[in-house]
Amino acid sequence: MDFSSFIQLLLSGLLLGGIYAMVAVGLALCFGVLGLLNLAHGAFLVLAAFTYQAIHGLWPAGTLIGVIIVPLLFAAFGWLAFRFLLQSALKRSSEDFLIPALLITLGLAFILEEGTSTVWNRSMAGIVSQFATIQWRQFYLPGNRLFVLALMLAISAALQLWLSYTDSGRRLRALSQEPTGATLMGISLARVTGITFAMATGLAAMAGLFYVTLFTVSPHIGLPLTLKALFIVAISGSGSLTRPLAGGLALGTLETMLAAPFGANWSNALSIGLLLIFLCWRPKGLFVRKLNTGSS
Amino acid sequence: MRISVSTARRPKQVFPLLVSLLVLTAFLFLVPSFWGDYARILLFSILLYVTMALSYDVVGGLLGYLYLGHGLFFGLGAYATAMALKHGQPLSLALLLAAFVALPAAALLGLPLFRLRGAVFALATLGLLLLGSQMARNLSWWTGGAAGLSLPPNPSPFLTYSLSLTLTLAMIIFHWLLCGSRLGLKLGAIQEDEGMAESVGIDSGKVKRLALIFSAVPAALAGGLHAREISFVIPSEAFGLENSLAPLLMCLLFKPGTTWGPLLGALVLSAAQEFIWTTIPSFRLSLYGVLLIFLGMQRAKRP
User: Fold this and answer.
1) Set of chain A residues whose Cβ sits within 8 Å of the Cβ of B292
2) How many Cβ pairs closer than 8 A exist between chain A and B?
3) Which end of chain A has fewer CB atoms < 10 Å from its terminal CB, N or C?
4) What is the distance in angstroms between the Cα of A134 and the nearest Cα belonging to chain B?
5) What is the pTM of this model?
6) Which domain holds residue B222?
């Protein structure tokens, strides 16, 4: 392989990493910072993708509006899901909320997946790309992915600033670091968690919008995507919203480099295999945060 | 989660139970001749569900680990059996192959898996299931890829049915014996307090790996029988999530850790499924989803 092909692969990998980072950032917020494992993340993403495609089909000029409305809609949807499914369990769990969260969100993931599959009659979704491919010297950079990467840089920075410097961000950090102390200080576990979950869902929806312009989406990729995002969050370390960007870029690059000789089918197997190896090697690495009320 | 250990071993209590079990078995053997194909197929699937639920219980109920990978061994058994059958082997040999594939697989996988506990363990087993499904798709020159393998139609449905009945019966007896055995007690001890169990001298790693093997082999056999009955294997079905979720829900519905709990759960859930399918087809995953949510909410209640 000559040098310029290698660079092309590297660039393609980084651009792929941009969308992976976007898929992961919602989960990084929800699980990495707060400790709430949301296995329905991918299912929300897929549903958002199909919804956006439907809107786009009905109303081609309204794409920009769709980009804003769909994430907000899904944020509200996520908040409702939290309020009715997770909140009471969260308040009641006297120890680790991890397993109940896992079960409830897994159940939700299935319901959403089957719902998506049934409503849209088991078809796939895909939207033609909006941006042309840019050519820089001898390398080709798909405009769509470049846009996503740029957007991700902005979003990661914005989220990290929000987390570090705003009051609501501080509340979230306080809650994740020391739940008992935070609740004693008057920070509402239910409200902060609900808002965080809603934000995470909104981010998942946004990732879904862009994902559908880059790839063909089937209703069944929800759970594998969630695991992929989980892997990115795991290797990037919890508690940060900028490091998952790097993690996503790394995974995207790795996948693209390996897809060249081995074929794209192996990229899914690769991600899951890496996640498993990582889990077994560093079992504690995945779950540093414990989300509970602190009461017993 | 408390387990209950069956200590009834006195002949007076065992004898009527055994007799009724034998009568029931004899009755079930004769069902196909009287009630025809639909009854046979229905009973076949119920029997497999019972086997899956009880074998799941060894890890999910007695040991108490939330375990999402049961479908992996079902799929392995299905593929192993299908491949053997494609090469012209008789069914019994094919099933034996399935067991011989599952046993070392479980032994090997147990080594890294049981370094994990709790939610991480559940996630890892889920990942394994998805990996199995993906690999079945990828290794297409061997497994037939996404289209899978197809077999000639089942030459003797009665044989498949009898084998499944035998398997289920053996599983019930085995589970019941396991509950009261030393191994069963060790599993219960690990569930109660793993650290304490180890300090008493239980080699928890070995016990857990053994439990995984005892859970995997019946699942593989069930998978093999299923493959023979429907005469094809495809990745989305053999390694499907429902093969992991159904036993989980059946086991945890009533009283995990007992023999009657998963048994009753399997009967109830298969009946519910059958009823739902005749009225609202293809909502199986959603049904499981709803049940999972309830299960999760319930788990949050217990300290």
Assistant:
1) 103-104, 106-107, 110
2) 130
3) C
4) 33
5) 0.84
6) 11-301
